[in-house]
Amino acid sequence: MIKVSIIIPVFNTKKFLSQCIDSLKKQTLNDIEIIAVDDGSTDGSYELLMEFSKSDNRIKVLKNTRKGVGAARNTGFDYAEGNYIGFVDSDDFVELSMYEKLYKKAILNDVDIAIGGVSLYYADTKKEEGFRPEDLYAKYESYPFFNAKRFPEIIQNIGIWDRIYKKSFLTQNAIFNTEDVGFEDHFFTMQTMALADRVCVVNEPFYKYRKNVGTSLTDNEKKNDKHKLDIIEMGKRSKLFLKGEYVYPIFRKPFLFYQFTTALYHEKNVVSFSTFEKIFNVLKELTDLEDYEYLKTVNHNGVNRFASFVEKNQLLLCYFWCKKEARWNP
């Protein structure tokens, strides 16, 4: 029986693939399958994946024709046979005990989602730093299981790759990766965390999220506006989803903090004014009076000021303020 299917979308990451695949092949949990979905690579990634598959029959290689990371993950999911599903980005790697420890706690407590910790791995210095609030994760770990309605703030910790999901949970709730859009993991996180009845945490930094290599959306984010509208679109879909499930009042505070801190980061880094205006207008459209009342109480000067500009529809003042903030607090 395959316990965990690990799905890897791959696009032109040949120089990182060996470390990624090796960290999965050497997992202490042996009953896994590794499903690599090449998304039209042109740097030899596909050929390298085929070589890996010859040396380990647990590795399956599929091929897409440049459909994007969301579509690649969905393709892998269609072929997955495991009881639980994990996702790994092809420029990252994981601790060798990750899937054994997550799976053991998941099975012991019959959870929909088992979440681990994350370290940022800086490729230039090879140093790591924590990426999740350790005190909160320690609190979560003390419970055999819980759900996000009990600890709503957990939805702020966006991530698809630091956890495993019961396959039947995803299938029964028809949860798939959004395709043809960037930052698709934000919407996926909101859906899965809001719908999961049982969640557990193992507070160890298993997942190594590689930084400063120029391959991720966040690494390239400051260079152009290509995906900046995607992040606000995912926020829009998330809010409409939470409202549709009648759980928005439960998640209002953490969702708004996530929404406005994320939007502020992107507004500070926009290249064109038209992109800034579009993000501003979507926020204005989505935010109601009760939302603004909460945002006034947030202990974050940037969020308070930003929300005030949106509430008063002060587009130009907000634009110049964000540019000034970007110069002093990049």
Description:
This protein has 330 residues and is α/β, with parallel strands linked by helices. It folds into two domains: 4-219, Spore Coat Polysaccharide Biosynthesis Protein SpsA, Chain A, CATH 3.90.550.10; 221-328. Helix content is 48%, strand content 15%. It has 14 helices and eleven strands. The chain has helices at 14-25, 45-55, 69-79, 98-109, 134-141, 167-172, 184-195, 217-220, 228-244, 248-268, 273-286, 289-295, 301-311, 315-328; strands spanning 4-10, 32-38, 59-63, 84-87, 93-94, 113-115, 118-122, 127-130, 163-166, 199-201, 207-211. Strand 7 and strand 8 (127-130) form a beta hairpin. The longest helix has 21 residues, at 248-268. The mean pLDDT is 93.
Architecture blueprint of SSEs:
Elements: E1 4-10, H1 14-25, E2 32-38, H2 45-55, E3 59-63, H3 69-79, E4 84-87, E5 93-94, H4 98-109, E6 113-115, E7 118-122, E8 127-130, H5 134-141, E9 163-166, H6 167-172, H7 184-195, E10 199-201, E11 207-211, H8 217-220, H9 228-244, H10 248-268, H11 273-286, H12 289-295, H13 301-311, H14 315-328
Parallel strand pairs: 1-2, 1-4, 2-3, 6-10, 7-11
Antiparallel strand pairs: 4-9, 5-11, 6-9, 7-8
Gist?
With 330 residues, the protein is an alpha/beta fold.
User: Main β-sheet, in a few words?
Assistant: 7 strands, mixed
Instruction: Please tell me the CATH architecture of the largest domain by its name.
Output: Alpha-Beta Complex
* Bulk shape: globular
CATH topology of the largest domain: Spore Coat Polysaccharide Biosynthesis Protein SpsA, Chain A
